[in-house]
């Protein structure tokens, strides 16, 4: 063992079915293959990993040839850059030939395939992302990633400003990885380079910014990272408006009290939505999906009318109209901006309503009103809506007599 190596105690990553097959196929006959990147980092931290990427000295054509011999399907997803996706039992694995930069200019780089693991590691963004794991269980580190991982330090490889100039998205990736893996004070050189290069953020596509921001907001230390971005003067330019940092911090504490998972869109609303115009601005600036926009729009709709003293009947009516997800969205937003704290028992009771009360189905249909003599047409739809409103106002009665009375009243009012 050297200072640049460490044996991985948990072999789950190496015994993962698809990865094991690919390593056996490529790590032989004069070629070498290793697991690289985030999966290695997370395995060392004891955290789950979702994707396994593999690097190899084998050229793309050789990867494809060996895959065919092993009856594995290969997809040339980025073969000009050395990447082939192999499918093992339906699961995709990206396999990339080692590369080294010949010339770099902005996001584009002229690269050449190589066989030098150090040169390949030095192309990556952060030291903790440049670790590689060989089939014998040894983690190889060429850039100080193991020490940084132990210290929970997010640090660029080489000169931070130069790495950012290669791709300005790395500014957001720095804050995202700091939110996910960092502890303590951020790396000073990295933070300074991010601030110096902030103008480059304006040239990024909205889709790329959206992806990084939503990942950041789900991270365990999102509050600390968002605060750091604000202090660095970066967040306002990304969101295009005010960030409500104190309320955002309370919101994450409320999630803990409620046992709620970190929902990126819900957190985005807590951070940056006050009125409906905010939801529309974020939709445009981050190119959110229509469904994401609708959730933010729903959060903005009169959240200030919800308070800890909300009557149980009114809470049930809100849950019925919004459904469990949007009910939680709006309730938690109002709670985070209320005078009460995250442990307030009244808010907790309101938040627990979806678990205690199953929203009923409206028991009337158009046919019920037609059977009472109301003809088809606009009046029928209006009467049905009015009947539903009356049923909600009566606190969702299930008694047939009460339901019949509601139907009769609606028909009487709308009959010509």
Topology at a glance:
Elements: E1 5-7, H1 12-15, H2 17-26, E2 33-36, H3 38-45, E3 53-56, H4 60-69, E4 73-78, E5 83-88, E6 91-97, E7 99-105, E8 108-113, H5 117-122, E9 132-133, E10 138-140, H6 145-151, H7 160-166, H8 169-181, H9 188-196, H10 206-218, H11 222-231, H12 235-239, H13 245-258, H14 264-272, H15 276-285, H16 290-300, H17 312-336, H18 345-351, H19 353-356, H20 366-370, H21 378-393, H22 400-414
Parallel strand pairs: 3-6
Antiparallel strand pairs: 1-10, 2-3, 2-9, 4-5, 5-6, 7-8, 9-10
**Quaternary status of these chains?**
single chain
Helix-strand category: alpha+beta
Helix content estimate: 40-55%
Q: How would you sum up the global shape?
A: elongated
CATH class of the largest domain: Alpha Beta
Low-confidence stretches: none
Spatial strand sequence of the major β-sheet: 1-10-9-2-3-6-5-4
| CATH second-level architecture of the largest domain | 2-Layer Sandwich
The CATH superfamily of the largest domain bears the name Beta Polymerase, domain 2
| Number of structural domains | 4
Tally of DSSP helical segments: 22
Q: What is the residue-averaged pLDDT?
A: 93
Radius of gyration: 28 Å
The span between the termini is 91 Å
